[in-house]
What we know:
Elements: H1 3-21, E1 36-37, E2 40-42, E3 62-65, E4 93-96, E5 106-110, E6 116-120, E7 129-135, E8 139-150, E9 162-168, E10 175-176, E11 193-200, E12 211-217, E13 227-238, E14 247-251, E15 256-258, E16 264-268, E17 272-274, E18 279-283, E19 287-289, E20 291-296, E21 299-304, E22 313-318, E23 323-325, E24 339-345, H2 355-363, H3 365-373
Parallel strand pairs: 1-7, 4-5, 15-24
Antiparallel strand pairs: 2-13, 3-7, 5-6, 6-13, 7-12, 8-11, 8-13, 9-10, 9-12, 14-16, 16-21, 17-23, 18-19, 18-22, 20-21, 22-24
Amino acid sequence: MHVRSRFTLVMMAILLMVGMVGIQPSKSVEANNSLQNLPFSQDWTNINLISTNDDWSLIPGIIGFRGDNLTSTTGVDPQTVLSPDSQGVIDVIANQLYPNTNTQGGVAEFHLENPVVALQGSGTADAPYLLMYLNSSGFQNIVVSYLLRDIDGSEDNSVQPVALHYRVGGSGNFINVADAYIADASAGPGLTKETPVSVTLPAEANNQMALQLRIMTTNAVGNDEWIGIDNISITGTPLGADLAPTVASTAPADGGTAQKTDNIVITFSEPVTVEETWFSISCTTSDTHTATVTDENPVFTLDPDENFHVGETCAVTVLAENVTDDDLIDPPDAMVADHTFSFTIAPAAATHLPVSTISRVQAKPHHWLVRLSLPKAWW
């Protein structure tokens, strides 16, 4: 047998084996994970950036992933899905027109009147997400903003949560950003919806050469809806710049509990000057409250003039325009936005006689009776 004939037979056998086991050529994907400096933005208006499925090469700093096997059931809270997805499947379905009838899962680009890239969960795309690669060097107070758009106006009406994660560097688990969580970014049936998100990342994200952000939804119970991630904007304040004051902490904490006679303590990030009506206190039962203020700048203690009512929820709002910093840089900076926190008034803790004391009294009652019957000098 000639060598050429032998080679031909071997190749035919290999091809036959490939066909028998169903092996397919590897899927070609393109991406550009180069770190992007701040400020960074993307609004998807240029529909020429994505023209081929799974090709992100013309969009530096953003890649879409299907999120296969990051969760195992439907209806999972994406705030809890923090694994790194090291074997992530890059995904984008290019040049789509009809979100109402597109039942695929993963990441898709829609050429709507207002174009957008959107996420939709499925049995395969357990936790689809957009991953952004950033360089925050030289910046602090990193602000992440985007618009969630339910573009699915079909009869579907899923609960579609969306979470934001971050991590420093390129490995390890992500950290959830609780303030960015949207429990349901969808509406329906037959409705669409827009939900703005804007949040300042924790200080750990400041001045980092490699910072990753992940916007994720998960496979919903029932038929999922397409949620667009639009008008992405990531900005920061240059290091060394004068910063506006913020509320650093409160007592009670947001979502916490208090007793009906408790004071409210507000601690600012720096010494501040406050003007009249710089705060408001409003409760579901006892209505509005005034308070006497003790100023130990930057710690301010509010002593409400009337007690709260057990079981009610109270909200305190710090009014941004009436709080300015005390530094020597003119003009003084006011808070950027109002700060609101709420808490519930809990019942007073019950006072009980210690069990050990009760047991001692009950164990030997006759000793007390004998003692009481004796003259005092004999005690």
